[in-house]
Amino acid sequence: MYWALARLSFQRQLAYRTANVAGLVTNLFFGALRAYVLIALFGAREAVAGYDVRAAVTYTGITQAMLSFLAAFGWWEIIRSVRTGQVATDLSRPVDFFWYHAAQDFGRALAQLLLRGLPLIALYALAYRIAVPPTPLHWLALPLSLALGLLISFAWRFLVNLTAFWTVDAMGIGRVASNLVLFLSGFIMPLAFFPDWAQAGLRFLPFASMVNAPVEVYLGVVQGPALVLTLLLQALWAVVLVLLSRVVLAAGVRRLVVQGG
C-alpha cells in the first residue's frame, strides 16, 4: 500500500510539467547567482576551509538541486488537514498515519529529484567545471546519504506540522522552522565556512544531516572513518526523529477535537 501511495504521488508530480520547468529555471538562476558570489570570493584566495572554487561552485549546484527534493521551503499537508478537519478521515484510514504521509512525500521527492535536481546538475556541468564524487565508495554512499537526509527532513517537517494540534495557526511556526533549516543545514553556506565554535555544535544537529552531510559525501570532504561516522549520525537522527514524531503524534491525537467529537 505504501509503495502504491509513493507511486501515485510520483505520478502526480509528473502532471505539473510547466511548474517543474519553471522551478528548474528559478533554481538555476539563483544557483548561478550563488555560484558567482563564491567565484568572486575565491578570486582573492585559492581555498577556503578546505574548499577550492570548483568544490564551492559544485556545492551551490547540489544544494539548489536538493531544495525541492527536501521541500526546504515548507510542507503543510497536516497543518491544512487539521484546519479543514480532513485529518479525522486520514487518522481513520487502515494505514499508519506517519508512513501514510511519508510514502507520499518520498514519491514527491523522487519525482523532484528526477525532474529538477538531476537536470539542474546536468546544466551546471555544462556551464561550470563541477566536481564529482572522488571514489566508488562515495558514489555508493551518496544515495544512502540522500535517502537518510530525506527521512530526517520529512520527520522534522512532520513534527513541525503536528504543532497544528496545539495552536490555531501553525503556519507561522512552519515558516520559522523552514528558515531555521535553510540557515543551520549548510544550505546558505557550507558549515565548514562557519567559525570553529559554531561548527562544533551545528554538525551534530539534525539539520546538518539533511543537507551538509550529503554535500560532503558527494564532494569527498569526508573519507574513511569520517564517512562512516557521517552516515551513522544521519541514521541516528533518522531513528530519533521518527520515534519522536510518533510520540508527539500520539499526544496530539489524544488532544484532537474535530467538530466537538
Write up this protein:
The chain is mainly alpha-helical and 261 residues long. It has one domain. Helices cover 74% and strands 2% of the residues. It has 12 helices and 2 strands, in the order H-H-E-E-H-H-H-H-H-H-H-H-H-H. The protein has helices spanning 2-14, 17-42, 53-69, 77-84, 86-92, 97-127, 136-161, 171-184, 196-202, 206-210, 212-219, 225-255, and strands at 47-48, 51-52. It has a two-stranded antiparallel ribbon. A hairpin with a 2-residue loop joins strand 1 and strand 2. It is globular, with a radius of gyration of 19 Å.
Could you list some keywords that capture this structure?
261 residues, 12 helices, mainly alpha
Instruction: Report on the biggest sheet.
Output: 2 strands, antiparallel
H-E order: HHEEHHHHHHHHHH
Strand line-up of the largest beta sheet:
1-2
Tally the structural domains.
1
How does the SSE layout of this entry go?
Blueprint: H1 2-14, H2 17-42, E1 47-48, E2 51-52, H3 53-69, H4 77-84, H5 86-92, H6 97-127, H7 136-161, H8 171-184, H9 196-202, H10 206-210, H11 212-219, H12 225-255
Helix pairs in contact: 1-6, 2-3, 2-6, 3-6, 4-5, 6-7, 7-11, 7-12
Sum this structure up briefly:
The protein is an all-alpha fold and 261 residues long.
